[in-house]
Amino acid sequence: MNVGIDKINFYVPPYFIDMVDLAHAREVDPNKFTIGIGQDQMAVNKKTQDIVTFAMHAAKDILTKEDLQAIDMVIVGTESGIDESKASAVVLHRLLGIQPFARSFEIKEACYGATAGLQFAKAHVQANPKSKVLVVASDIARYGLASGGEPTQGVGAVAMLISADPAILQLDNDNLMLTQDIYDFWRPVGHQYPMVDGHLSNAVYIDSFKQVWQAHCEKNQRTAKDYAALSFHIPYTKMGKKALLAVFAEEEETQQERLMARYEESIVYSRRTGNLYTGSLYLGLISLLENSSSLQANDRIGLFSYGSGAVAEFFSGILVPGYEKQLAQAAHQTLLDARQKLTIAEYEAMFNETIDIDQDQSFEDDLLYSIREIKNTIRYYKEENE
């Protein structure tokens, strides 16, 4: 049975900062951000916008009434949970109007969580061919103002509908996974921002890709020539490029050029949004599919997922004939272009505004599904009929 991604969409909030502006404010060479890490813009959110808000916007436009009746599982991959107990997927299930007899939960393992959800969804549909599963990656990547990680921040969500006979990408059964107990990035309970060993994290990312790529190729008897393109987890756009160069330096020059050209197409959107954590791999996949004129039906796409701490996975899928008709390049371009550019002062003020969950209060935000009220520590969201 063919199972895979039937629909896919991303969303980022309507605000951003320019990385050149940030560089000047932090008194560093702008090339350090635009070339050194490969970022041009960073998505920014208000305090009244959270992972539920982003998940709703990413999911609602791709789901039909028929989908809402067929979905029997909602999975949110995130490391930005809003509750230590209740899953955001439960709130998302209600706001979307999905039929009640469904399973809803969150998965956490740094930036890998959504990939775990995708694989769980695939297995569920294989066992229940009439089912559909909604998998959403939604996160807020924050390291603090003027911190070392500040230029690799970002925010947003990617929603994927998993089904039998998918219209976009048929997932293969060729997964290769790797788990290593390494403290390259972590956030203890109670800490507002993560702890990061940047050099170690970069090294573990590259080494993890080397290991899973080699083992994957040995297991499945493949080489780089079998892949039309590779999509990577993108904490910043130079990271995937480093891994690609480290592994394929010995490949024929034509193979290197081909894979690098596809990689550049996969980072078009990430350069304008920053790090989506769990969603970054799948934002890269959307960017690849929407910005490449070289891909064709039946091409094999490889996907490298990485979550610090550390879990890595490499798997692949086959492009379905007509996949390009399921994409929304014009809408995504409009979404990115319509955002408001903030000054660094406006960004810093927005960054420093936080919600006291223990204080009952109401909020004004024009954005649909934003938090409208906190009452008895519960978040209430603005809905379409309000």
Number of domains: 2
CATH C-level name of the largest domain = Alpha Beta
CATH architecture field of the largest domain: 3-Layer(aba) Sandwich
Task: Give the structural class.
Answer: alpha+beta
End-to-end Cα distance, whole Å, is 43 Å
DSSP strand content: 15-25%
Per CATH, the superfamily of the largest domain is Thiolase/Chalcone synthase
Q: Which whole number gives the mean pLDDT?
A: 97
Task: Note the main sheet.
Answer: 10 strands, mixed
- Give the number of helices: 13
**Topology-level CATH name of the largest domain:** Peroxisomal Thiolase, Chain A, domain 1
Tally of strands: 18
Poorly predicted tracts of residues: none
Question: What radius of gyration results from the CA coordinates?
Answer: 20 Å
Q: How much helical structure, as a percent, in the residues? A: 25-40%
Query: What is the approximate shape?
Result: globular
Protein name: Hydroxymethylglutaryl-CoA synthase
Enzyme class: transferase
EC number: 2.3.3.10
Organism: Enterococcus innesii
Structure characterization notes:
The structure is a single chain. Helices cover 35% and strands 25% of the residues. It is an alpha+beta fold. Helix 5 links the parallel strand 4 and strand 5 (103-107). It is globular. Strands 1, 4, 5, 6, 7, 8, 9, 12, 13 and 14 form a ten-stranded mixed beta sheet that branches. Strands 3-2-15 form a three-stranded mixed beta sheet. It has two domains: 3-170 and 328-381, Peroxisomal Thiolase, Chain A, domain 1 (3-Layer(aba) Sandwich); 173-321, Peroxisomal Thiolase, Chain A, domain 1. It contains 13 helices and 18 strands. It has helices spanning 19-25, 31-36, 51-60, 65-70, 88-96, 113-127, 198-220, 237-248, 253-266, 270-273, 280-291, 329-337, 344-352, and strands spanning 3-11, 15-18, 41-44, 71-77, 103-107, 132-141, 154-164, 169-171, 176-179, 185-186, 195-196, 229-232, 300-307, 311-319, 340-341, 361-362, 371-375, 378-381. The termini are far apart. The longest helix has 23 residues, at 198-220. Helix 3 runs parallel beside helix 5 and helix 8 runs antiparallel to helix 9.
